[in-house]
Amino acid sequence: MKKIVALALSSSFALASAASEGIPTDVTEAAEELLRAGMTDRVGFQVVEDLTTEVGPRLGGSEAEARARVWAEAKLRSLGFENVRTETFSMPYWERAYEYAAIEHPFPQELLVTALGNSVGTPEGGVRGQVVEFETLTDLINAPLDNSLEGKIVFVNEGMVRTQDGSGYGVAVRKRSGAANEGAKRGAIAALIRSVGTDSHRFPHTGGMRYEEGVTKIPTAALSAPDADQLERALNRSPVTVSLDLAVRTLDKVTSGNVIGEIPGQTDEIVVIGGHLDSWDLGTGAVDDGAGIGITTGAAKLIMEHINTTGEKPLRTIRLVYWGSEEVGLLGARAYAQQHKDELGKHVMAAESDFGAGRIWKMDTRFGDDKVELGVDIIRVLDAAGVALGNNQATGGPDVTPLRALGVPVVTLRQNGWDYFDLHHTADDTIDKIDPDDLAQNVAVYAAFTWMAANTPGGFRADPAAVGTE
Q: Which CATH code is given to the segment(s) 107-239?
């Protein structure tokens, strides 16, 4: 059976290659060398360690994120990158100042909460109200619009499904904004949610939320999973009154920025890889997204070492981007797309690492219909690292979303995210959660993939001549 499967795969590879010019042999051979070398890389892990130790938490728009940009420029220069610079942009600023919640009656005890990003604060002294629980956000959305929650605190107790690819996040994350917006429409004075996460520890998960236009802004916070369970048990016994006290600080305009370093190519075409430099303020941002910074920096450094050894300059410029202020609304991503709008036609490929440091197991692409076979050629190299070929509907990562929307081909190198949402946006996001060998596999895969993206003739967009003229 194994022989039959192997023959079938070989036949599919042959057919796919026959339908495409493919990736030149010398390019794939260099990519294979990079893949092998990357498996023992420690530059990537060292970058994460340096960032999380020397800067720590890096809330978008904060003084800490500004220090991170200074750190990043110095690091990129020390590693040998060229054209290092920061491209700034303006943004509104939000930070937490104080947060407290407790059951007041009938079972007095503190609850561990964290304010959700962009939440308004409570009035001085906090708010108090009877808690009304909804099992899911859909249940709240379907509740009558009749002020039935007037003066009360809404509690959306919806859990999140654990999956390898993080697919449970899309459903669970809706309540971060939905609880406050839907609660306010029905007269609620505040909203609590079960954290958007998969852990069972007393670490509440923060994350950004957005208010709907025209809806009263009410304060909103996330309970850790054990505290959500505790509140649920209390509600099963009796009506419960909770107090919530949140203080936040805001500014209309501060400066953030994207930090860029490059490996110049032979042409003005560009391949973009990177991660986001900012993090939430509870942990040190190791998994989200110090890992992505380390992975893509390590990969690009490997490529520089290959160039220095062989003198083989890439066809295209490899641009490493540390996006700013991703967590608070993809602000760096949008700024990059706007600031580089005139050269997006020369962006041949983009990919972001922003899902922790688990091993890469699958590659999704978003290539022109006549170029999808190139994904098979790439996988023929990455297969040695345990990477399989997925679909042609890749997102590319959060910060390349605006580039993908404007037609730039993207790849998603999917990582094993089984425990990612145990740590995501919590105080438990620290470097001890990263396995250096797993991170090295990411570095190896990114290095090999990036080299092939930078040296594949013709690129990955659909050939206009191959598109039908209906």
A: 3.50.30.30
